[in-house]
Specification:
Layout (H helix, E strand, L loop, with lengths): L1 E4 L6 H13 L4 E3 L6 H10 L6 E2 L11 E5 L11 H6 L3 E6 L12 E4 L5 H11 L6 H14 L10 H12 L4 H8 L5 H12 L2 E5 L2 E10 L6 H12 L3 E8 L2 E8 L6 H6 L4 E2 L3 E6 L4 H15 L6 H4 L13 H11 L3 E6 L2 E7 H9 L12 E2 L10 H9 L5 E6 L2 E7 H8 L19 E4 L1 H7 L2 H16 L3 E5 L1 H7 L7 E6 L2 H9 L6 E5 L4 E5 L5 E6 L1 E4 L8 E4 L2 H6 L9 E3 L7 E4 L3 H7 L1 E2 L6 H4 L2 H13 L2 E2 L1 H12 L8 H12 L4 H11 L1 H5 L7 H18 L9 H9 L5 H10 L4 H23 L5 H8 L4 H10 L3 H12 L10 H6 L6 H15 L6 H11 L6
Parallel strand pairs: 1-2, 1-4, 2-3, 4-5, 5-6, 8-9, 20-23, 28-29
Antiparallel strand pairs: 7-8, 9-10, 10-12, 11-12, 13-14, 14-15, 16-17, 18-27, 19-20, 19-26, 21-22, 22-23, 24-25, 26-27
Helix pairs in contact: 1-4, 1-5, 4-5, 4-6, 5-6, 5-7, 8-9, 13-14, 24-26, 24-27, 26-30, 29-30, 29-34, 30-34, 34-35
Length: 877
């Protein structure tokens, strides 16, 4: 049974999305999980009785649901009794939604989630793709969903896709008269009374320069369309941010509206168990009085509202500046190294001017490399202080046409603000361009809080360490961030306790301060790179680094490191999904910094590099891109794939140290499905780029599948021996190579000489063993042991994967599981007691006894003594 449902208190977008989903899933039952908005109820009764049949939630047998289609929501807390279907995990879940992610989201097998004005716009696109026809009544209902959720195309969340969907619906006969009537419905007496209260009880808060109106009202009976009343009040008074609490019957309703980035209505509503967007959100509160809810709302606003920003908050720092005596040639190196388009020129007397890339490029073209930068800079540059409001900086850049604004504090240059910094601040966080930026992107990061996710998913002792780290940073007037794979995996709901912290300050002293908080901790530091590892007594460790940037003197070289800011530290990372940082300072604990769209790419399951030279500077990123793509089921973006192909044409791996390639290759072979990684590597031509002899064809793929089966068998033997799975797969990858080619690959990958020699010898022994077993149909157990004992477990497992003979596989399996553990009952002391002198004869006798026991010649210690007396009479008593 298929069921289409939506959120409680369904609005027109929810209802319209259900109607649209029914066109895509014609056999599905349609069911509201609970209440609907008054407008929806009235319109449904009057106009849509014949569009579709609505089932009652209580009549649905939840156990019979095989597919649940959720529209306009994915929060378990908002789908009523259908939440149990999602939690059971038996039904297939399909999701169509436009709301931001929340911590109680349902996971779907099919998820189409976009930042768009109305969910129904997403479904309309699917309807158009499939060529499904709509009648005029259906088109009208779907259009109502768009018009309501976009505020008739006036809300900031409105997109061109919403407008295109509405235009298509008009072409299908959507009735604008009906839509207009519903959007401008007259208020009844009760609604007018509530609106009067909202206006009369309104109070204006000023939080960090942000004005927010909070108001309350009460009604003895239910009053519909509260959202409409709040919206009317907001428009009447031209309010930027408005929150209304209305008590009706036994519950309190919260409606939030915001037209400014500093106030996120969705975040506030979520704290009351509701949800929505940054611009519009709501919640139904059942366990609080209106006074308690009002007090909590005020506290949340003071805690969450981001005050108006100043120049010091969005400036790029530490600042990179040129000195007057430096040359144009040196400036060209700086512009390239730091990936910026302008730099300030500063001397002892202050800011002298701004030098732009265009001027540098022209000067270099004309051979003026040795001229001082002061010859070609724009002299004189208005400056601002860290406390200067952003609006004033905007006027400088727009009206004054100043590309770069220096930030000065007490005569000292402390930062700069570029136009991209300002654009990043002014742009609403609805996503960003999907291409790779050519220059270091600047501006305000997209932010959200994962505090609750940290508290739910991290072990208590780890969470305690992170909170201590935040406290220490606050005391030291520094900032500390959780970064890297841990943050990525946190958003993916995967476990990862490889904790990496970045400190905007001094990493090594910070690590020592943290270690002092936990008895028995040690610190291992690396002064050159400003990094340290805090080692806990139980083996847990935390890597701590000073925020830094890296640049490459030549393609494939190891990076040169300099101290920097968290923004530049994140920019040096490989892919957008690994650029997220979570602040641990108490005042911002759990706040995610997302400068590069990493959250979006995780959500859309895309691997994307940060800049166009990423693979030229570090070709091993190609291997990581493929590995992450396979591990997480992500897609390598088209632009990133193009950059990979371009880098390979440049033969970038030729300059990479073999050890670095080997490390990445080992990581790939350690993945759950190395075969899929190698298939992608083969499709790009990565393997022959590493070494001409390497390939991954159908034979190799079959060998990998066989190896995977053997490793699974080994796992379930529950032996204590350590096996490196990557070695088994490496033998499979190189099996088709000649002796010379295999030796050359080992040399290219820079394996130590001793390890290379051992690998070559073992490979020859493996092949001889397989040949021996293939030519002998009957082999005594003692012979099996003699043949296989010199080989490593990895070699033995590979031989099991490679052989096609069942008897050979059984001999190897018997050796691994039992034969190698067989020992004689007698020991050296027993031999002494029989009159033998310690020496080489001991080894000979014990080996003979072991073979005899393996082959069934002896079964007891007395049998062994008798065998010794017969075989070695001279030494026996």
């Amino acid at each position: 049974m298929e069921v289409i449902t939506t959120h409680l208190n369904a609005d027109f977008d929810a209802f319209a999305s259900m109607v649209a989903a029914k066109k895509l899933y014609p056999d599905a039952a349609v069911c509201f999980p609970g209440s609907q908005g008054k407008n929806v109820r009235d319109f449904f009764i009057e106009s849509t009785l014949y569009i579709l049949s609505i089932e009652r939630a209580k009549d649905i047998d939840l156990d019979k649901i095989t597919r649940l289609i959720l529209v306009d929501t994915r929060q378990k807390s908002r789908i009523g009794r259908f939440a149990s279907v999602a939690e059971a995990g038996k039904a297939e879940i399909h999701i169509y939604d436009h709301h931001p992610a929340s911590e109680d989201d349902v996971k779907g097998g099919v998820e189409i989630i976009e930042e768009i004005g109305a969910t129904v716009s997403i479904l309309i696109r699917e309807i158009k793709k499939r060529g499904i026809e709509l009648n005029a009544e259906e088109a009208t209902v779907l259009a109502l969903g768009i018009y309501e959720d976009t505020g008739s195309f006036t809300f900031p969340s409105t997109t061109s896709a919403d407008m295109e969907a509405a235009a298509w619906l008009l072409s299908k006969g959507a009735n604008l008269n009906i839509i207009s009537n519903m959007m401008t419905a007259d208020l009844n007496k009760d609604q007018i009374e509530v609106l009067h209260q909202l206006i009369h009880e309104a109070e204006t808060l000023n939080i960090g320069g942000i004005e927010i109106v909070v108001t309350t009202a009460t009604a003895e009976n239910y009053v519909g369309d509260l959202a409409l009343l709040v919206h009317k009040f907001k428009d009447m008074e031209n309010i930027d941010a408005l929150f209304a609490l209305v008590r009706m019957e036994d519950r309190v309703h919260l409606i939030g509206r915001s037209a400014i980035v500093e106030v996120n209505a969705g975040d506030i509503a979520a704290e009351f168990g509701g949800g929505g967007h940054a611009q519009a959100a709501s919640a139904t509160i059942r366990d609080m009085t209106i006074h308690t809810a009002h007090e909590k709302l005020l506290n949340l606003l003071h805690e969450r509202v981001q005050p108006k920003r100043t120049a010091g908050e969005i400036m790029s720092h530490p600042v990179i500046a040129l000195e007057p005596h430096q040359t144009i040639g040196e400036a060209a190196v700086f512009l390239s190294r730091y990936q910026v388009s302008s730099l300030p020129v500063a001397g002892s007397e202050g800011i002298l001017g701004i030098l732009h890339r265009t001027a540098v490029d022209k000067a270099v073209h004309h051979g003026l490399d040795q001229h001082p930068v002061t010859d070609y800079m724009n002299p004189g540059a208005p400056t601002v202080t860290p406390d200067t409001p952003i609006e004033q900086v905007v006027r400088l850049t727009v009206e004054g046409r100043q590309r770069l604004v220096p930030v000065v504090d007490d005569g000292r240059l402390v930062g700069v603000i570029s136009r991209s910094d300002l654009l990043g601040h002014l742009k609403l966080p609805q996503g960003s361009d999907s291409s790779t930026p050519d220059e270091f992107p600047a501006g305000r990061p997209r932010t959200k809080s994962v505090r609750r996710l940290l508290e739910e998913r991290l072990p208590r002792d780890v969470l305690n360490v992170l909170k201590n780290a935040g406290d220490i940073a606050e005391q030291r007037q520094e900032s500390v961030y959780l970064v890297g794979g841990t943050v990525r995996d946190l958003l993916l709901r995967d476990s990862n306790l490889d904790i990496d912290l970045v400190v905007e300050g001094e990493g090594i002293p910070f690590a020592r301060a943290l270690a002092e908080q936990f008895p028995g901790c040690r610190v291992r530091s690396h002064e050159k790179f400003g990094t340290a590892v805090v080692l806990f007594p139980d083996g847990f460790k935390i890597d701590i680094a000073t925020a830094r940037l890296e640049y490459y003197e030549r393609p494939g070289a190891l990076p040169t490191v300099e101290t920097s800011s968290i923004k530049r530290d994140l920019y040096r990372r490989d892919f957008t999904m690994n650029t997220l940082a979570v602040c641990l300072n108490p005042s911002r604990f759990g706040q995610v910094l997302d400068f590069f769209g990493g959250s979006r790419d995780i959500k859309e399951k895309v691997i994307r590099v940060l800049h166009n030279l990423a693979f030229v500077e570090d070709p091993t990123r190609i291997l990581r891109a493929i590995r992450f793509s396979s591990r997480f089921g992500f897609v390598i973006s088209k632009h990133t794939a193009t950059l990979i192909k371009g880098a390979l044409k440049m033969q970038v791996f030729a300059n990479v140290e073999g050890k670095r390639i080997a490390n990445e290759l080992i990581h790939i072979l350690e993945e759950r499905s190395p075969s899929s990684c190698l298939s992608v590597m083969a499709s790009y031509g990565v393997l022959p780029a590493i070494h001409p002899a390497l390939s991954f064809d159908e034979r190799a793929r079959a060998l990998f599948e066989s190896a995977a089966g053997v490793l699974s068998w080994w796992k379930y033997l529950f032996k204590k021996d350590k096996v490196d799975a990557w070695r088994v797969y490496f033998l499979a990858l190189t099996d088709a190579l000649s002796h010379e080619e295999y030796a050359s690959v080992l040399e290219r990958l820079a394996f130590p000489i001793g390890a290379r020699q051992k690998a070559l010898v073992e490979r020859s022994e493996m092949r001889m063993a397989l040949t021996f077993f293939a030519s002998n149909h009957v082999v005594r157990p003692s012979v099996v042991v003699h043949v296989l004992k010199p080989l490593s477990l990895e070699a033995l497992l590979f031989m099991m994967a490679k052989t096609t003979r069942d008897t050979t596989r059984k001999w190897i399996a018997d050796y691994i599981s039992s034969l190698r553990y067989v020992k004689p009952a007698l020991r050296g002391n027993d031999l002494k007691a029989m009159g033998f002198e310690p020496g080489p004869v001991f080894t000979s006798i014990l080996n003979r006894l072991r073979d005899a026991r393996l082959d069934g010649e002896v079964a007891s210690a007395e049998d062994e003594r008798n065998l010794i007396r017969r075989t070695y009479p001279a030494g026996a008593e």
